[in-house]
Task: structure prediction
Amino acid sequence: MSISKHLGFLFATCSVLASTMLPSLASAEEVNVYSARNEALIKPILDKFSEQTNIKVNLITGKADALISRLESEGKHSPADILVTTDVGRLHRAKSQGLLQPYTSEAMHKAVPKALRDADDQWYALTLRARPIMYVPERVKISELSTMEDLASEKWRGRICIRSSSNIYNQSMTAAMLVQKSENDVLTWAQDFVANFARPPKGGDRDQIKAAVAGVCDLAIANTYYLAGMLTDTDESNRAIAQQVKVFWPNQNDRGTHINISGAAITKHAPNQAEAQKLMAFMVTPEAQQWYAQTNHEYPVVEGVEWSDVLKSFGQFKAENIELFKVGELNGEAVRVMDRAGWK
Result:
């Protein structure tokens, strides 16, 4: 074979190889997600995103605070593109530590109400969580219940179960009160509220529900998706426990029931920004929101998405109407108030 023919053969061969490789190169797009949601509560919807876009999602799950610490220690070398975490307090913490970047998008603004996103577009809500009162009907008359503020009255002495002050959900609940009331009013409420605890705080939200049913207390403060998870559990004993409590929506005649979020943000040093933006947009589509509502029993942030049957069974409610970024900003002050009130 002459040199010219040999070179021609090599060129043709390389061209064929290149053409066969192009599809795989095109599908080599990826996005790296650090998620405080456990795998079962997020991976199915990420898989759906990959199916639709051919973008591979690399998922790392862990404790919320540990993931923020990891982002900080990795710095500009972090492979993370998106942080998915629970509670506005943690999203604000990540922002204040300089770990996030703004993502201004007309589609995101249209899908996520202003009150449920950062003022500087550094994070967006994905789902809503409500934190109402859960009571045992055999021991609590619904006519006794009204507001969270009323839980500081003497009639509730020794009747309340709730998590520790170190719990971010309780910190945000207190911070939300600080957005709407004076620090002195919130401190007075917290002191009297703590005096009504049936026991020193311990355990998670499910433990508070179980304690109420067991007779340790008469009512518990917990997020609705924990109760929903128990009601749909494969464990029959958990279902039986959950069926013995009812949900009461406090503050329906004034400020509304406290809500919080799970949310997402693009990290400051995201190596795959275009893919990250596509995933952020996907997570607030009606399809993704419907999956969250039906599978995780969390309230959608996108208007018009149907709730799960379990959420419907809890009833409609009026939610707080405050800008949640302010709740994140007041986290430190809330912790100080809780400490002063003796909330362990």
Summary: The beta strands are 30-35, 56-61, 82-86, 124-130, 133-135, 160-161, 219-221, 246-248, 259-266, 299-300. The chain is about 45% helix and 15% strand. The longest strand covers residues 259-266.
